[in-house]
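Ticket reopened. Same input as before:
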Amino acid sequence: MSQAYRESLWLFAVTQALHLVAVSGFVGAILIVDLGLLGWGPARQSRAGIARSAQRILLWTGPAVLVTGIPQFTTNALRYYASPVFAIKMGLLAAALVFTVTLRRRVAAADGDRMPSWVPKAVGAISLALWMGVTIGGRWIGFAE
Amino acid sequence: MPSILPALEWLEGLAWTTAIRESNLGYPIMETSHVACIVAFAGLVMVMDLRFVGLAFAHTPLTRIQRPLFRWQMAWFFLSSATGLLLFVVDPLRYYGNIFFRVKLVLLALAGLNALGFHLATFRSVARWDEDRLVPATARLAGAASLLLWSAIIVSGRLIAYNWFD
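Engineering reply: fixed in the latest deploy. New output:
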């Protein structure tokens, strides 16, 4: 029995570690576009092409984030259910997802000349704040017993 | 060979490291900052690496990805290192003997050498292949090594929390 417990602890630890790798790839594909929107990243003429390619990275790493994230919830479902930090993370995640597939996607795909310059800047800043908030919330779940 | 253990014991005994170590919020704040900085840093490195290995941004010249990201990668790396160093200094004996901590340090050195070697060698001729979808084999190799090494660094860093072999 202790052997089985240790093995499942291994599995849990490795799942967490791979979750972090997948999250890094996902957040990297978010950041490269957000930095461009803020005017601090790749130049404007490459922005729409980079956003298209970054979206493909999101579509590959997103499922990896889910596959490694959901088992962590199911093994501790009751604890997570009662955790306010978990609820905050999931709220931020929902907001970040909705924002990313609606407003952010439109602005990132536009060439930038047809809108006031504050629009991409605001969208980049909001996206950056939401996704970093999800990341920070995710780590903090482990400290909020 | 002189042991560094006395130095680590001295560090651990300092008033300020003891105060942070024994506070409730010290470790969670340092650790969460460390993880957030690493995710931002490794994320920006890995998406750039995907351009090198030919899996993303194929239609964008490589330096249009690499140049503007470089200062952000450096900034996030500095913050990751600073928070990581603080975590170690505050509780050195916890990490010193940990196998995953030692593996992580070796992998960090390898990742640094990989990046440095690439910048000093292959990257010098980037003007000749900047727009190529398929970059030279040495550049692809450096990108693949970077992807693997940073992933392994994240994994070993997470596993430090599990002191199975202490």
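The longest helix of chain B spans residues 62-90. Residues 42 and 150 of chain B are 7 Å apart (CA to CA). Please confirm and we'll close it.
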